[in-house]
Amino acid sequence: MVNSGHNRDDQASKLGMWLFLFTELLLFGGLFLVYSVYRYMNQEAFLQASLHLNIAMGTVNTAVLLTSSLTVAMSVSAMQKGNIKVSINLLILTLLFACTFLVIKYFEWSAKIGHGLFPGMEHYNMLEPGEKLFFFLYYFMTGLHGLHVIIGGIFIGIVIRKIKTGKVRPDRYILLENAGLYWHLVDIIWIFLFPLFYLIH
Amino acid sequence: MSNENNNTISFYETGKGIFSWIFTLDHKRIALLYLYSVATFFLVGATLGILMRLELLSPGSDLMHAKTYNQIFTLHGVIMIFLFIIPSIPAVFGNFFLPIMIGTDDVAFPKLNLLSWWLYIIGAMFALSTLLFGDGPADTGWTFYAPYSVKTGTNVSMAVLAAFILGFSSILTGLNFIVTIHRLRLPGMGWFQMPLFPWALYATSWIQVLATPIIGITLLMIIAERVIGIGLFDPALGGDPILYQHLFWIYSHPAVYIMALPAMGIVSELIPTFSHRTIFGYKAIAYSSMAIAFIGYFVWGHHMFTSGMSGDARVIFSVLTFLVAVPSAIKVFNWVATLYKGSIELKTPMLYALAFIFQFLIGGLTGLVNGALATDIHLHDTYFVVGHFHYVMFGGTGFAFIGALHYWFPKIYGKMYNEKIAKTGFTFLFTGFNILYFTMLILGIKGMPRRYYDYLPEFQPLHVIATVGSWILFTGLIIIIVNLIRSKRKGPAAPRNPWGGVTLEWQVPSPPPLQNFDKKPILSKKGPYDFK
Q1: Min CA distance, A85 vs chain B (Å)?
Q2: pLDDT tens sequence across B90-110
Q3: Which residues contact B457 (CB under 8 A, 6 or more apart)?
Q4: Which of 1.20.120.80, 3.10.580.10, 3.30.1490.20, 3.90.940.10 is the CATH number of A29-198?
């Protein structure tokens, strides 16, 4: 069968992943556009609504994701140097950071939902329209982002498996690099989400 | 490469049975899977069009109520745009011929290619399922404008989810082609030794990759609106319906260049071959493809001139709309210049190419009439717009698709089609097409609104003429399809190069073997259109 690996092309794989990342950026880009328009039209309401968010938890999550980007990059370096065990351990560490992020997110969301601050619930229904928009966008965008954290985590999990079975190795680690690239995208989207939702001034 | 027979037996022989097709990784088989799917849905969409024209034979309700009519034109648009035109040329002819034309044995990511087709089928099933439950298919028009699309009880969420899935299919095709063109060209084939069809596919693929996600997220927002009702696009709840229109058209305008550019790429292949002359202005055409793709991102507001945008915004969009016409016109001039002093052979594919130039010209010029602010106020949402876009999408892309089908038929199937019957089919199609859609231009100027199933009696004569045109057109389609199916079964064997073409696909057997090339491809030093 053609393209059975005899014509392996790592540059092509990487280019393919970058193109996919562009599509993800544009997907979120549409939401950022909607956010910009509605924030411009409801500046006071967005500020008021943002006060409901817990800046401390948001900051911890930002640090967690940034560190996880570091560990995944270190994992790639380790693989390049042939340190397979270190590479795997760094990936596992990355996954732990991802789980931490999701756990903190869970507590953030459940706190708000517990206060009835979710579209359709009592407290939410009493908000000004601008504040409603803020919260809808908050749940939609951080929710979509959380979904991508899970997808990225699964991707990294797959790479860990493939390293253990020898399919990903120092002379053939483009899959690890691509997983790292995807993870960096997930990280950078959060870097934009965090100030836009938590740090409105 | 372990089986040497793969160089001599055709790609049809390298596996039998349905599973060897629907789970294939061979770009040629995937192309044919797309061809049969796309053709089937085209016929469904065309039938819906015929039904619309029957309803419009006289004012008032003839065959159906207003809501049914709305559902039919919505489904007609969704099917024709998302299930036919957008995938058609790239997924069928791009998949089949891009690797061959650049001298390689498959696309960069064959598994993604197969996934792309499966997503297409799943999206198509979701779209058609809207006929089967609840309040029936969406009745919003294919544009799904808010707030009606949020409020209506018809199956908008399912239709929109279908479009979301189809968007991924499109993105994957584009991604695959970009990487294929960057990485898999034959050694010795630089960017400017590549034929113009790959160039067209390259420009198209960038639009597919960069524009489609925007409609993806917009459609998700519509679903969220319908499910949660937060007021993103509902003015009563603080939202802005015009924001929806902006988001929608930021994709859907570039989408029309996804439709047009591959078709222009086809014409850039047909004209030189059937003039037996090198293309005039190769680099200009290549650069124009990229320019159209680029400028096309910035004109979306011309769909919204009457929506309440500021005067300044409208002027900017209008100017950019006129600007994007320039590279298109450059291509038309170059094609015509290629004909000059050529040894012209009026075979069927050439007839389609020439019809394309004629019809795309009318479509393009009527587009400028729409793009001028003053005239657009009168023509927006009239039949003039409907005539305009059918001229470019059907008279342009549709005809290019059928022309490509005839051109590459001998290569794909190893058989020749019947030239006389093909020309008869073309004549019916061309005649019927122009009667149907030119009439619409006149109807529009006279004030007939679009998407209306009822109208004032003064419009009836023109509607009758248009409907008769649709019957002639449909007859042409039947003749063409029957001819091709019969020729596939019983046609005479086709040689390697029936047309005297000079691009690489004419160096491979008809039909090609699995690995495409049975001998090493030979590149001319004088460029891709070296006619001696």
Answers
A1: 30
A2: 999 999 999 999 999 999 999
A3: B59
A4: 1.20.120.80
